[in-house]
Amino acid sequence: MEHIPLQYFLILSTLMFFIGVAGFIIRRNLITILMSVELMLNSVNINFVAINRYLYPDQMQGHFFSLFIVAIAAAEASVAIALIINIYRRFDTIEVTEVKEMKY
Question: The whole model's pTM is what?
Answer without folding.
Answer: 0.81
